[in-house]
Amino acid sequence: MTIVITAFERSPDGGRGLARDTRVRWALEEVGQPYEVRGVQFAALKEPAHLALNPFGSIPTFEEDGLALFESGSIVLHIAQRHPGLLPDDPHARARAITWMFAALNTVEPPILERANARLLEGDKPWSHDRIPIVEDRVRDQLRKLSARLGETDWLDGAFSAGDLMMVSVLLRIKTSGLLEAFPNLAAYVARGEARPAYQRAFADQLAFNTRP
Ligand code: GTB
Question: For ligand 1, which residues put their CB under 6 angstroms from it?
Fold first, then answer.
């Protein structure tokens, strides 16, 4: 059975690739698995049919052979475990790559999301002006540590892995923020991820999906 993922019927970003179906598309492209995309309207995210797939009423979801998954991290990990190309064979290296996935989602992404919420959802609050620099300092703090570990290497731990796919996906959210500019090795790391043919295909497909007539 063909893999089916869900995405916004129309992403609010107009196809900039910021919604989380892009990381799932990227993983599927890296391992060469064909897939179909089902667009979901915002209202339908909270209706029973979609809630049966994802109780939190969000995208992306993943369906294959009677298996339904939600959470982009879980979906990418499942894809990486099922198909060669995104996780090393050596058990220790594999565990470290998975650790980087968790670091991306649990350590680096939270302050980035906090910043997005502070700007988009709370930007009109009287305290927002004071809060945004505090939140941006939290982002910088994690970027500083990540930058120190990456150093001058191409990827976080040897060859490109699902850990890099997830970390680059998370960092792409702040690509235009100016925050990465203080960390040239992280900016170059993100550019390396974006230059991968699999990412290019994923990006082009989500753009075409979000700009279709
Ligand atoms: N932890 C979950 C995961 O990783 O899968 C989070 C899923 C999630 O937040 N999905 C968002 C969603 O469905 C889309 S990605 N939101 C609708 C809802 O919950 O009602 C977040 C996102 C949305 C839009 C932009 N954008 O337009 O720039 C960027 C990121």
Answer: 11-13, 18-20, 45, 57-60, 71-73
